[in-house]
Amino acid sequence: MNTQPHIAAFILRVTLGVIMLAHSAYLKFFVFTLPGTAQYFESLGLPGFSAYLVFGAETLGGIALVLGIQTRIVAAALIPVLLGATWAHSGNGWVFSNSNGGWEYPLFLSITAVVQFFLGDGAYALKPSKAEAA
Fold first, then answer.
1. Is there a domain that residue 110 lies in?
2. In Å, how far are 7, 9, 18, 20 from 3, measured between CA atoms?
3. What's the pLDDT score for residue 95?
4. Residue 90 lies in a domain
5. Deepest of 5, 59, 118, 133, by most Cβ within 10 A of its Cβ?
6. Distance in angstroms (rounded) separating the CA atoms of residues 128 and 68
7. Helix 71-88 with 104-119: angle, nearest 10 deg
8. CA dist 110 to 31, 36, 54, 81, 107, Å?
9. Using 50, 70 and 90 to split pLDDT, how confident is the model at 132?
């Protein structure tokens, strides 16, 4: 059986990166706006400025994943952000199509980030993690 784990890791890395960019640049910036996202964070009892930190983490993390820059570190750094999104949607039920989105999609993304951490960069990484470079 011929398997290509480095290609699989690459596909997962780019897909997760694009999704992170979609949730930051598109959803938080263009749809909800950053001030609107800050208000939503405040409605959850979080400080409003944390919305900007999450936006930055998702944007920079998404770019780094797409390009393959320090994938393991980036994936590990995104896990708390994604678990926070899971928590934020936990009261909305399981299915993400529920009103205000359920928690299964953010949980899936959290697990995907964990898997990406263990898989590493995969093929076509611009700047591989030190473990992969050795």
1. yes
2. 9, 12, 24, 27
3. 81
4. yes
5. 59
6. 7
7. 170
8. 23, 24, 14, 8, 5
9. low
| 3-class DSSP assignment, residue 127 | strand
Is position 47 within any domain? no
Give the pLDDT confidence score for residue 134 in this predicted structure: 54
Q: Which residues contact 11 (CB under 8 A, 6 or more apart)?
A: 122
Asked if the structure places residue 105 within a domain, the reply is yes
What is the C-alpha separation between 30 and 81, in angstroms, rounded? 20
Look at residues 52, 70, 65 and name the one whose alpha carbon lies nearest to residue 21.
65
Q: Contact at 8 Å (CB) between 123 and 115? A: no
Phi, psi for 44 (deg, rounded to 5): -90, -5
- DSSP helix/strand/coil, 69: strand
Answer yes or no: are the C-beta atoms of 58 and 28 closer than 8 Å.
yes
Provide the number of structural domains found in the chain.
1
